[in-house]
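Structure ticket #2291
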Amino acid sequence: MSLRTVDQSGITGRHLCRQGAGELYSDDNVRACAGAGFFVLFGAHLSGKIVLLVLILVIVNIGYSAAGTLISAISAATKRNEVMLPILLFPLLLPFISLAIKATASAFDDRPFFELLNQLETMVAFCVIFVAAGYLLFPYAIRED
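Resolution: structure written out below.
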């Protein structure tokens, strides 16, 4: 697929997503544009991997949300909370995101599920740790003394 094909498909998708000026940024239009772009880039390679990619996406969303909520609650009590959040969150999420990238690459490379299972188990362990830490520490993180 050439760059011109991707550019033309992006222009076509953009015109298809614009139904009216008032509805340009509605949720349905944004989802349609994102879905069209994803299909243009990866459509031919997604034959039987949709369930696996959705599983990876759900695990990553849970872990990222749990860690972000906990760290944002901790950094909200500081004077420079807009600086503290990325400083605390980035090192915490870096191994998690690298596992997600490896898992997604393995899914696109048509590797067997048992090879991907080690990465998925580690990602689920990160999720459990983030959710449990958030559940246990959130009342202490948001209390004001």
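Closing remark: The two ends are 59 Å apart (CA to CA).
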